[in-house]
Input
Amino acid sequence: MSDVKKFLYVNRKAPYGTVYALESLEVVLIGAAFEQDVSLAFVDDGVYQLTKGQDTAGIGMKNFSPTYSALGDYDINKIYVEKESLEARGLTLDDLQHLTWEDEDDDWAEKDSIRVVSASEMAEIMDQSDVVLSF
Amino acid sequence: MAMLHTVCKSPFERDAMKSCLAHVVSGSSVLLIEDGVVGAVDNTAVSDLVKGAMENVSLFVLGEDLKARGISEDKLIDGITVVDYSGFVDLATKNDNVQSWV
Output
């Protein structure tokens, strides 16, 4: 495909209470087949989607959080998490899953996928996207 | 009359918890469930509001919903009681009435 567009998926909801987080993840995985330039943004309550140690056995719902660690295999390795959103919720990067990808141009070196950015940096990322999908 | 108030929305996204805490009378119980459980965490933008309310009301949070969201109990505000589903039922029966903040 010649015209690769910059896709940004904006996630602003906590998982499980509503279906937005799961729907977003499914659309991201479907979209991965189209070989576009994909970025994921986690803002506001969306940062809860990436917390580690999720255990949904007690609420009888499928725990889809392990799927985030597979995104690197789909060449989705730009995962932006907003610093202000973490701080307002008493969270740090350490509370999130350690998501990585393997860089084939660098001898398959394992690199971090999550980049913590400020709200103003997030604004730039949004501004420079060709297609924005909001969840 | 003893009332159990349940809050199921995140305090960072909706004002359900804020409104609930502004309308509870002293001695009531407030149970945070579903996305509402994030309001039980300490050192957040809303934790002072919750701590203030706890001078007059008892705060509870549903453990199953905490676990689903990867929130460990050691992150909670001191004095909040974690209950399971049967604890939820106990609270509902122990109180005269239940008010849901949706």
Chain B touches chain A through 27 residues (CB under 8 Å).
